[in-house]
User: What shape does this take?
Amino acid sequence: MTTQDIFVTQEAAAFTAGLKFHDLPAEALRIAKRCVLDGLGLILAGSDQTCTAIIQRQSLHLGNNPEATALGAKPVKLPAPLAALVNGTAGHAMDWDDTQLSVTPDRIYGLLTHPTIPPLTAGLAMAERLGGVSGRDFLTAFLAGFEVECKIAEAIRPDHYKHGFHTSGTVGTFGAAITAGKLLGLPELQLRHTMGTAASLAAGIRVNFGTMMKPVHVGRAAFNGLSAALWAADGFEASPDGLDGPWGFFQVCGGGVDSDKIVGRFGRPHTIVDPGVSIKPYPCGVLTHPSMDAMLALVKEYDLRPDDVAEVVLFAGYNILNPIRYQIAQNELQAKFCMPFLLSAMLTSRRAGVKEFTDQYVNAAPLQAMMRRVRTEFDPSIEAKGYEKIRSRVEVVLKDGRKLSRDSGEAYRGGPDNPLSDQDLQAKFTDCSEKLLDAKARQEVFAAVAGLENLRDMKELISLLTFFPNKERPAKLASRP
Assistant: This one.
């Protein structure tokens, strides 16, 4: 089946327009609520990052229609697209957001898209703008956007990513557009116009990995997708087949589409269930996580300290060594793509969370010194096994001459085969939000998200996430009878 013979835009719109809450599998709803909780914490964690602060300041100059909340220590009301831009930027600023998985050898495991933040932040802004959006309607719209985004990311040819597009910015635009369009109640044709607009607005290139611009790719995906839906609702028209044909998104941006991965596949099954989603244990590129866990296991097993270590060598294939490209990190943004830093952090602090991803920590003398004793090496035997799993080996050479080695393992922590427990997920949320929310507030957020399908109005959840230093706490949430 050629690109010219398929009509994915129409299928995606029909799936979205027809999706009802009672159609959603229980497992999809369970995982969706985990992704929502994870995403909310990440928005709070990233709200004080420099890139987010700049985007928020600039957004304040662009409009004064107070429709939706940009979260953080000093929440501000903005037009809905701008609130989605700020929150979307914040949600990806720590590079801690979840990852769609691939299970085919020609795709690079973990490098399809970060699926939650674009539909989540577009959905939150649209729900607040509209008012009266129930938790059920929100979950339905979120899962519609999540599903369409993931199926597009899986189906577009791998050249899309390999040639330099950042899928979370490009394909994430469709996830945001579908979620916003669903909340607006757009019929099928207007959803197709929404996707046609999204196809022209989708953007983001990998040259900006390790810079402030990478998180903005996701913020712009939320902004552009929500804008596309609002324009369509106001009568704006674009190609009703924006994904398809010789000039559609698939062909222009990826060199084609693998139709068997998407035609007739929306919701069959939901990607969030199968092959699943990875919720990250560390705020850095997912390809680094198994190596970090292998390093931590050696550190704990042998009670290693930096002074014990002469050298650390990471053996891996190009799927890890190419994107994780910094040899010595000079700031926390580079640190997220710097294996010497990440392994040094595990050796030095035995953890890598909010407190470790700061410029001050990265540039501390002990970390800079340790990074210079860590190197990476291409391993052809690992490369030959393919990219559908994250494979590596960590070797630690001690000053007394001993060599310690640990394979990363294929069922990495955070993936669907070895998921974070609910307690681990709540601990991650706490790490992300403890500067803004006290323990009582966090428990209220946990309860609200756990019962999201019973929420009458999403504004009540948003109120729990808003920090008011000298004001009374929001009233108890109203639930569906």
The first strand starts at residue 68 and ends at 70.
